TrEMBL record, chain A:
Sequence segments annotated as region (Disordered): 1-23
Domain ABC transmembrane type-1: 105-296
Organism, as annotated: Brevibacillus panacihumi W25
Name of the protein in its database record: Peptide ABC transporter permease
Family annotation (CDD domains): TM_PBP2
GO BP of this protein: transmembrane transport
TrEMBL record, chain B:
InterPro entries: BPD_transp_1_N, MetI-like, MetI-like_sf
Compartment(s) of residence: Cell membrane
PROSITE patterns associated with the record: ABC_TM1
Keyword tRNA-binding belongs to the record: no
Residue ranges of every copy of the ABC transmembrane type-1 domain listed in the record: 95-302
Species whose genome carries this gene: Brevibacillus panacihumi W25
UniProt-listed SUPFAM superfamilies: MetI-like
This protein's name: Peptide ABC transporter permease
Pfam families in alphabetical order: BPD_transp_1, BPD_transp_1_N
GO CC list: plasma membrane
GO terms (BP aspect): transmembrane transport
UniProt keyword annotations, A-Z: Cell membrane, Membrane, Transmembrane, Transmembrane helix, Transport
Ranges annotated as spanning the membrane: 9-30, 95-118, 130-156, 176-196, 238-263, 283-306
Amino acid sequence: MTGIRTETQPPSVQGNTPITEVEMEGQRKETYSRMIARRFLKHRLAVVGLGILAIITLMAIFAPFLAPHDPYEVTEVFEGEPSAEHWLGTDQIGRDVLSRLIYASRVSLVVGVVAVAIYIAIGTIVGAVAGYFGGWIDMVIMRITDIFMSFPFFMIILVIVSVVGSSLTNVILVLGLLGWPSVARLVRGSVLSLKQLDFVKAGIALGISTPRILFGHILPNAIAPILVNATFGMAGAVMTEAALSFLGMGVKAPMASWGNMLTDAQSLSVLTDQPWLWVPPGVMILVSVLAINFIGDGLRDALDPKALK
Amino acid sequence: MFVYIVRRILISIPVLLGITIVNFLIINMAPGSPVDMMVDPNISAEQLELRKEQLGLNDPLWMQYLTWMGNLLQGNLGYSLSSFEPVSTLIGERIGPTVALMGASIVVGVLIAVPFGIISATRQYSKWDYLMTTGSFLGISIPNFFLGLGLIYIFALKNPWLPSGGMTTLGTEGGIVDTLYHMVLPVFVLAIGIAGKKIRYVRASMLEILGQDYLRTARAKGLREFVVTNRHALRNALIPIITVVGMEIPLLLGGAVITEQIFQWPGIGQLTMQSIMSRDYPTMMALNLLAAVMVLFSNLVMDILYSVADPRIKYN
C-alpha cells in the first residue's frame, strides 16, 4: 500500500480525480441534502426542537438587550417574589432571576457546542486511525478506549474537575477531553466497513495518499452517525454542565448557569417557599435538553440509510 | 465460545491495569501534596519534609504507583483524610444502601419500560406510540436533580406523604418497611432515567422480532395475539434488553451521586460527594477505582451472558 504512493502515479490521474469527484459530489450532495431536509421536516417534534433551540440561541446572543436588569447587580429586594419589576423575582442576594436565566443560556450553549466539537474531533481521528490501520494500532487504541469507558462518565468528570478546579473553561476542557471514546468506537466501526468498499480500494490502487483516503474519501461517508452522536452529545453536555454546577463543581457564582441557580434549592426553605428561584432554571434545562434530543432523533431518522429511498 | 470467554477475560487484564494507572494519575494532578493539608504552625518545615519522606512522596511517580498498587493488592485502600478511618471500612458501610438503591431502580425501570415499549411497538405510529416515545424522551431529558427536587416539593413538602430524605425515620428503629418508604422517591428518580432509555430499546427490539417468520407461523396456528406478543415475541426481544441493562451501571453510579446527595441517602454516591467537598483524595481515588472496576466487571459478565444467551452470535 505504501509502496505505490505518489512516485508511480501519473500526474494526470492525480489531476483528474478530484475534479470529477467534486462535480459528482456537488450534484449528489445537493439532492441528498435536500432529501435529508425533507425527511427531517417530516419529524414534527424535531422541527419544534429546532425552533426552541433557535430561540435559546437568539436569547444567548442578544442577552444584553433582552435582560431587563444587570445579572450581577444587587438590587434592594432580597428573595423578592415575582413582581412587575422583577418578573421572576430576585434571588437570595437580590439579583434579578429572569436576567440571570437569560445570561445562563450562554453558558449552556457554549459548553454544549465547544465541548462536543472538541471530543468529536478527537474521537473521529482516533477512531479513524484505529479502524483504518487495524492490527496492533487498533488493539492498543481500543484498549485505551475501554479504559476510559470503564470510568462512569459523570463520576470521573466530577473527580477531575474537583482536582483541577472548577470553572467554565475547565468544565469545557474536561468534557471535551473525556467524551471521545464513544465517538471513537462509532467511527472505527464505520471505517472498518467502509474500507472494504470498492471506491476505497480503487483509491488505494490509484496511489492516493493514506490521509487523503481516510479524511477525503472514507470519513465523508461516515459523517451521518457522527452528526447524530454529536447532537445527542450536545444534549448530554448541557445536562452534565448543569449537574456539575448544581453540585457546586461547575460554573461558579457570580456567573449564572441554569445548574448553579438550582443549587440553593437544596435547602428546604428555598425549596418550599421560593419556587421562582428553582423552577424556571430547571424548566430551562429540561426544555433545552429535550429540544436538542428531539433534533437528534429527527436527524437519526432522516439520515438512516435503511430508510433511504 | 469457551475460547471467546477466555479471550474476553484476558483482554480485561490490561484494561484493569490501565484503569489503575489513569486513576493514579488523575489524583496526582491535584496541586500540592497531602502533607500540605497537615500544615500547622507547630510543625517545622524539616518535620514536614521528614513526613513527606516517610510517606514516600519524594519518590519518583512510578515508584509511588507501585507502592500504591502493592497496598491495593493487599486490600489496603489507604486512610480517609477527613475521618482517618480506613477507606475500605467507609466503603463497606456505604455499599449496601447504594446496591439496594441501584438494584431497585433497575427493576422498577425495566418494569416500566417493558410494557410501555411493547405497547409502542405493537401499535407502531399510533397515538400511543407517539405518547410513549415522547414520554421516553422526557425521561431522558429531565435532569435528575430537578426531578428529585420537584418530587420532594410535591410529595414531601406540600403534601407530607413521603419522607424528603434519609434512609430511616430519625429517632426510630427503622426496619425494612421504613427503608422501603424512604426508597420510593430516589428509586423513582433513577428508574425514570432508565425507563426513558429502555422504552426505545424494547420498542426497537420488539419491532424487529414482530416481523419474523416464526411469529407469522404462530399466528397461522391460530394463537391469540396476546400470546404471540407476550410469549413468543417478548421472550426473544428480552435477550438484548437484559444485556443492555448492564450498560446502565456506569450511568447509575453517576446518577447515584446526585440522587443520593439530594435525598441524603447514605451510600457510595453521597460518600463520593463528601470526599470531593473535603478534598479527601484517598477516598476519591478508591471510589473512582471501585466504580471503574464494577463497570469493567459488569461489562465482562454481560458480554459472556450475551454469548451464552444468543448462540447465533459468532466471535472471531
